[in-house]
Every structure is written in C-alpha cells, then in structure tokens.
Design a protein that fits this description.
four-stranded antiparallel beta sheet; about 525 residues; single chain; alpha+beta
Length: about 525
C-alpha cells in the first residue's frame, strides 16, 4: 500500500471520529462507523444539598469544565478526554468486530468497562495487560493519543507547517454529515453527540477535538510522505528479506490422504487407525505416480485427474511446506517433487522466481457514485432502474470532464474539482492515488491505468460497479517491487516516529475530573 493510499485510509477513519497513533499504519481501507448511541453508567457524585449545586450538576457544567488531565502543562476537560476515550474504545470494538473476534476478546460492550478485567485472549488481541480493567486500558490509550496529537500539533506550529486545503474541506463535509445525521434521528446536534460521547460532550468540544485530529493526520501524513530512501537502502532492504517481495510461478496437485477421522469421540487426537494409515499410503503412492508421469513428459494438469490442481503465476511466499519448497534459494526451473503436508501429499513443479519490475502508476480520479436504488434484485424493473442509475452517473462524469476541459485543464485544476465533486475518500487529496499496482483496482479502472498507450495527462470516463470515474493519468511511479520495499521502510520509520511523539510527555490526571470520563 502506498503512503498516499494509507493517508486516505487515515482520513476516512478520522472522518468517523477516531485516530489511534499506535495502530494508524494498520488501519483497514474501509469506513469506520461510530455507534450513534453509547450506553453509560451513571456516575454518582455527592454534592452539598444546595439549589445551585443541583442546577450545575444537571446542566453538566461541572463535568464539562472540570480538568481531567494535564499534558505538558496543557489542561483538558473531562469532555475532551471523553472524546478521545470513546473514539479509542470504538476503534477497538470496530476492529474486533470486523475480524469476527469481538465475542472471543471477552470485551462486553453492554457492561461497565470499569467492572471488566482483560482476559488473556483480550490482551493478546488488543495489547492490553491481562487483569487490568478495560476502562484503564482505554483511558491509557486515550491519554497517549492526546499526547501524540498535542506533540504533533506543537511541532507543526514550530515548523510553520501549512495544512493542506483538504483539512478544512474534510472538516466542513464531516460537520455537515453530523448535522444531517442528527436531523435524520430527530435530535439536535448537541443531543446526538451526547448519545455518542456522553453527557459532558458539546458541539464545541467535538468540533475542536475533531479538527485537531484532522490536523494531526495532515502533519503526520506529510512526515510519512516526505520520507525518502536511496537506491542502496532499497536494495539492502530487499536483500535482507527477498521472500517478502519476490513472486514465483509454479503448479501443484493436492492428493488428500485424510481418512474420516483421527480423533476419538471426545475430540482428542489419537494414533491413526489402520484405515487412516492406508489412506495416507494410498495418497503417497498416487503422488509418486503423478510425479513419475510428469517427469516422463506428461502435463501435470492432465495427470491430476480428479485431484485438486492449481497453477500459480505470481505467488507470494507463505511459511508452509509448499511455500518453503518453492522459495528455497536453491530452486531451479523445472524442479519437481512430492511434498508431505499434514495428511496430504503435494506434487509440485517449480517454473520461475522473479521480482515485479513493471512500474506502478499515479492517477487522480473523481468518482460519481450511483444514485440510490429503490428496487431490489429480482424486483420488476430492477434492471431498468440500474441501467438508468449508471447512465445518470456517466452523464454527470462526462459533464465534469467537459467542465474541467473548458478551463485551464491542469492537474491542479483537476485536483480542485475532485475535492469539490468526488464521492471517493481520496477527494481530500485531490483524488490522488499513488503507486497503484496491477490488480489493485477493479478491472475497468485497472485496465485503463495499465493500458500500454497511457501517457501523462490522459483523461477519460471509466465506468465500474461503483459508478463513473473521471480519470486523470499523472504518470508512472516506482517499479512494483521497489514500491513495496519503500512502503515497508516508511511503515517502520513512521511507526517509530509516531510512537515517539508522546514518549517524553508528562501526563497528570485529576481524580475529580476523571470521575466524569468513561
């Protein structure tokens, strides 16, 4: 993944209300959705029995204004800490849920986090410490996130860093979306935010902290994008781990040697029965026969018969019996062998090992997404409606391309139009995608990008299942293998730098203000 596409991912995450500095490089390329209604336990505080105190409590002035944490002398209210606490919490929940691991983590989203301790499985999945409360874990993560954001914004100010126009554009779009979501829920923006972040949250606090996250993203992304490496550094990194970047061409047949079971009624592994041993011996004999046929001049696919046959043209390394054999440095074209893999046998034939030398490409695009359908597949008129939606998107894309062509028709003006009109998350970078590799995008998009006749400045409207794309070809970039190496070098250096941001920060907590967090 190129740096700019990872930057887009972080922007999409930020627009949903969270950025976690410790996991920002591992964020998934998908929209993160924040729950619109988060349950909170009631925080019991004993106040002096006075009318003024009661009014203050009910109006949430105390939790809003109470200092909950101080980071290097800068004070943060409970509401501000709660903003980060809830975003980190939802980050974790969303990630666990997306991998289908939430139920295994032991994190109960319906119970108080202060009363739940982290299990060994939860610790393994999240990096929390076994035995601590989930509340303490999320609070620590939130404070680290706040310290990182503060340190980055301070550095940006000292350097005179200029935030790109995309920051304000994304902020404006996100606030407009927030207001629309609140209206659709028949709630005020203030109440909508309270449902999401707790009673202490206000529109002002949300807007200020959200803008800080966008600025943090812009500054740290600029740092990452600015990392460069010499040819010798790239070569050294490749030589240190060629298996991570090389591809291989090979084919293989899988002959199953599994019998019905190697477990007893209670699920315990037992010694193989005579039947199971016979099945594996038969598989070995069949594999030897296929190998002999291949070495005598036969085609492996034909010899496979009813067994599973696979032809891999550009396979990546994996730590397995087959992977280790294929990527063995001693492997030569034409090598063949029978490999034992668990209860199965593989007949493998090696053809080639290579680096992907073709150049990646940089493009800008404006996505005109399909309109909202009213019919479902199978309904009468569904195909006609889909055809009309596609035609409408194509017409709008043609109109945008003509609009751009009627102006100065530069890459800069295309980027400005993308920021204004695109429905894709890359809009805040002017529709830019860098170091696209063959196969990264859907077929029509991919084929246009890698057309052999493509040259800088080329434009077109390309239709895909996502809508119509107004394309602008920026040019070729690094060879694919070099782009992968550089991406990994940037990832390592960025992680080290990002984690160092809050390393020297002094964080103090206020016991009173912290009672309103979580």
């Amino acid at each position: 993944m190129s740096a700019s596409r990872e930057k887009q991912t972080r922007q999409e995450q930020a627009s949903a209300g969270w950025i976690d500095p410790k996991t920002v490089r591992e964020a998934q390329q998908r929209k993160q959705e924040r729950r619109s209604n988060i349950l909170y336990g009631v925080i019991g505080i004993v106040f002096a029995v006075a009318v003024v105190a009661t009014i203050v409590w009910r109006s949430n002035i105390i939790p809003k204004m109470s200092t909950a944490a101080t980071i290097d002398g800068e004070k943060y209210t409970a509401a501000e800490v709660n903003f980060h606490y809830q975003t980190v919490y939802q980050n974790t929940v969303n990630n666990l849920y997306s991998y289908g691991m939430l139920s295994y983590s032991g994190l109960d989203t319906t119970s108080s986090l202060k009363e739940q301790t982290v299990s060994s499985m939860g610790a393994m999945m999240t990096g929390a410490t076994e035995g601590e409360t989930w509340h303490d874990f999320f609070l620590e993560q939130a404070l680290e996130q706040m310290a990182a954001v503060q340190a980055a914004l301070k550095a940006a100010k000292e350097e005179g860093f200029t935030y790109p126009a995309g920051v304000q554009a994304q902020y404006d779009d996100s606030i407009a979306s927030l207001e629309a979501a609140a209206k659709a829920s028949n709630l005020s923006v203030s109440q909508y935010l309270k449902n999401s972040f707790g009673a202490s949250m206000s529109k002002g606090v949300y807007e200020a902290q959200f803008l800080r996250l966008l600025q943090y993203d812009a500054y740290t992304s600029a740092y990452e994008d600015g990392l460069t490496y010499s040819d010798s550094e790239i070569t050294a990194a490749y030589d240190a781990d060629p298996n991570s970047y090389d591809k291989a061409a090979y084919e293989y047949v899988t002959i199953s040697g599994a019998a019905e079971s190697t477990q007893d009624d209670e699920g315990n592994t037992v010694e193989p029965t005579e039947e199971e041993s016979a099945a594996k011996e038969a598989a070995k004999a069949a594999a030897d026969q296929i190998l002999a046929g291949f070495q005598a001049g036969g085609k492996l696919e034909t010899l496979a018969g009813d067994n599973s046959y696979s032809n891999v043209e550009a396979g990546t390394y994996s730590s397995s019996t087959l992977g280790d054999w294929v990527f063995d440095s001693a492997r030569k074209a034409g090598d063949s062998a029978v490999l034992e893999s668990g209860s199965d046998y593989l007949v493998a034939v090696f053809h080639d090992r290579f680096r992907e030398e073709y150049n990646t490409v940089d493009v800008r695009h404006i996505l005109v997404s399909l309109g909202t359908a009213t019919l479902f597949e199978g309904d009468e008129g569904y195909e006609e409606e889909q055809a009309q939606l596609k035609a409408d998107a194509k017409a709008k894309a043609d109109e945008l391309l003509a609009q751009w062509q009627s102006g100065d028709a530069t890459e800069e003006s295309f980027a400005a139009l993308a920021m204004q009109e695109s429905a894709d998350g890359s809009k805040y970078d002017g529709g830019l995608y860098t170091q696209i590799y063959n196969g990264w995008a859907v077929e029509a998009f991919n084929d246009w990008c890698f057309d052999a006749s493509r040259k800088p400045g080329d434009t077109a409207v390309v239709e895909t299942e996502y809508g119509a794309h107004v394309m602008y070809f920026v040019g070729e970039d690094l060879p694919r293998w070099q782009a992968q190496v550089v991406s990994d070098l940037k990832s390592a250096d960025y992680n080290e730098w990002a984690e160092s941001l809050p390393a020297d920060s002094t964080i103090t907590r206020s016991d009173f203000g912290m009672k309103f967090v979580g």
